[in-house]
Amino acid sequence: MSEAKIYPVFDAIKATTHVTKEQYQAMYDRSLNDADAFWAEQAEEHLDWYQPWDTVSKYDFHTADIKWFAGGKLNVAYNCIDRHLPARAEQTAIIWEGDDPNASQHITYQTLHDKVCQLANAMRSLGIVKGDRVCLYMPMVPEAVYAMLACARIGAIHSVVFGGFSPDALRGRINDSECKLVITADEGLRGAKPIPLKKNVDKACEGTPSVEKILVCQVTGNKVGWQDDRDVWYHDLVDFQETSCEPEQMDAEDPLFILYTSGSTGTPKGVMHTTGGYLLTATMTFKYIFDYQEGEVYWCTADVGWITGHTYLTYGPLSNGATTVVFEGVPTYPDASRFWQVVDKHKVNIFYTAPTALRALMGAGDEYLETTSRASLRILGTVGEPINPEAWEWYFHKVGNEQCPIVDTWWQTETGGAMIVPLPGATPAKPGSASLPFFGVELALLDDEGNVLQGEASGNLAIPRSWPGQMRGVYNNPKRFHEAYFAMYPGYYFTGDGCRRDADGYYWITGRVDDVINVSGHRMGTAEVESALVLHEAVAEAAVVGYPHDIKGQGIYAYVTLMAGEDYSDALKAELIKHVRKEIGPVATPDVIHWAPGLPKTRSGKIMRRILRKIAEDDYGSLGDTSTLADPSVVDDLISRR
Ligand code: 6R9
Q: Which residues, if any, are the signal sequence (predicted)?
């Protein structure tokens, strides 16, 4: 492999950075060698506590039992809002940029406080108490952030479901965590297209016995269905509440939120994060990885429905007292210069997005950049999937005018915050590498037998020690938590990613090694798409794999066997694609349906996905050993149908 380019740390960044190269090394060493002392100092420095903790950390990866700052008491909303008021009541907390380029709004910390308190009081008036689950199915409006913080304020556990998920997917998530309240909007708006959120909620709630009330925020004002004894307009209830609300004193280990994410098997898992450790990880990583400086404007383009929208749109920036941009729209509306226009309009200093968006914008052509200056930008970031060096270079040279370091942040819903990441003032960057571990993060590369690989090596990425932002469980399913993450390599948290370490100790994520596909930075379990396909009456069997896709990173490639007598037609392909969108949502849209009257199976009936991946990649030369197949001729048949 040819050696990658190295971009040194900028002198301008070094001048004000929180962490120089020397400091990184010293802090990193201490974070491993004297871990509890390190984390205790960080927790004192970065958060306000009502009561100190009894124990810094206590965990056992063999039993999947993890606790940080147990006995400590704090409130996340207090840390994200109230503690800033003495100094920054009039500072902008949120800049909302509408889908319509003429719509934007500045919300101060004082206003944020008042709005969150009103909603928190409204929720209490609906009977929501500490520990209750509240589902948020929201567009990117300020109320989405208010709702997360209002839950945190009263100790309710939020479960944000991405607005692009279907009614069926929403129902499954509401039922799994038995949400009492759903907060939604009449409609969302993306690229001038209305998204029928309330309609989807109505459909989902045809089968959700736990839901008592639905609070509906008016966004587009279009008419929606209504059920008087269940549905409540947000403005009718919330706008008249008191603007103060005493925060609930939460134990550090009380749950803060649940977020569903795809795994290699079964239905999506309710990843559960708790209060103290998660907030510390969010706060610290935000400050250090974006090298955030007082007064800067920060923009993370992620939707609140993903973990990035939790940690780096809401909790990380607000806990640091930063100004965070909430963008309702899409990168290509009204045209492909929208991101850069918004950067200029709001003088954005720190910009964080996904490689898939960069590839799409790069493909649209540089003329969309040339009408903007982007002169305010200081730091750029990426997240969600490996960034190909070509997109990295474009981001660096064109978007950042060669003035801005890029932080490529590797992490997961389960890790709570960034784990492998260059620090802008400390780490020379190599395009395509997430580079070095964050404080307290110990990494191991394991071979398939679980042996630890030393030095330059490629293997399965695993983590032998806990960090504060680690997920604490799969909601209501401790057994699944252990099985999914700790059973594969005893004593390790297994990430599901493959990774290479180079001669300089830099880490290069190579992608998932399990049956998870990363589509445009969104995780999709192959099993989920397969289950959706086989629900269709014409489908007998389905096998789904990922394949390389220029814009999305990976696309969804579905092999489908039909019931006897069904006709393998193009019309049916189109219908199956529609069917999957309806079952899961547009994020799961198959890119290719490949008719498979037979699937390559071992004699024990196991589908050989390795072969299906190769065919999907158009790589027939290296199909490997097919002799264990029950019927090797199906492979030739599949290839002939490509
Ligand atoms: C934050 C987030 C997690 C999976 C992860 C990995 C991939 C995320 C990456 C990256 C290479 C990066 N991933 N960031 N791969 N470089 N900088 O995306 O969480 O949705 O749970 O996805 O995404 O494969 O395991 P999540």
A: none
The pLDDT of residue 3: 59
Pairing of strands 323-327, 92-97: parallel
CA separation for the pair 436, 408 (Å, rounded):
10
Instruction: Quote the pLDDT of residue 1.
Output: 46
Which residue's C-alpha comes closest to atom 22 of ligand 1?
Answer: 412
Return the exposure string of 118-133: e unless at least 16 CB atoms fall within 10 Å of the residue's CB, then b.
bbbbbbbebebeeebb
Residue 583: what residue type? Answer: E
Query: Ligand 1, atom 6: nearest CA belongs to which residue?
Result: 385
Ordered strands of the 452-453 beta sheet: 452-453, 444-446, 457-463, 493-501, 507-512
Tokens found for residue 196: 């029928």
Tell me how far the alpha carbon of residue 381 lies from the centroid of ligand 1, in angstroms: 13
Q: What is the pLDDT of residues 333-343, one digit of tens each?
A: 999 999 999 99
Query: What is the structure's pLDDT at 408?
Result: 98
With a cut of 50, list the residues of the chain below it in pLDDT: 1-2
What region does 64 belong to: left with phi over 0, alpha with psi -120 to 50, or beta? left
> Considering only CA atoms, which of 248, 306, 260, 253 is closest in space to residue 277?
253
Complete DSSP assignment for 249-278 = -EETTSEEEEEEE--SSSSPEEEEEESHHH
Q: Report long-range pairs for 607-616 (Cβ below 8 Å, ≥24 apart).
A: 607/543, 609/515, 609/526, 609/543, 609/545, 611/635, 612/543, 612/545, 612/557, 612/559, 612/638, 613/545, 613/546, 613/547, 615/639, 615/642, 616/545, 616/546, 616/547, 616/557, 616/592
This model of the complex carries an ipTM of 1.00
Burial tier of 484 (Cβ tally within 10 Å: 0-12, 13-18, 19+): buried
Cα(522)–Cα(636) distance, integer angstroms: 32
Distance CA 233, CA 238 (A): 8
Tell me whether the omega of the peptide bond preceding residue 334 falls within 30 degrees of 0, making it cis. Answer: yes
Distance 411 CA to ligand 1 centre (A): 5
Read off φ and ψ for residue 387, nearest 5 degrees: -95, 130
Cα(146) to ligand 1 centroid in Å equals 26
pLDDT of residue 2: 47
pTM as predicted:
0.94
Q: Is 30 helix (H, G, I), strand (E, B) or coil?
A: helix
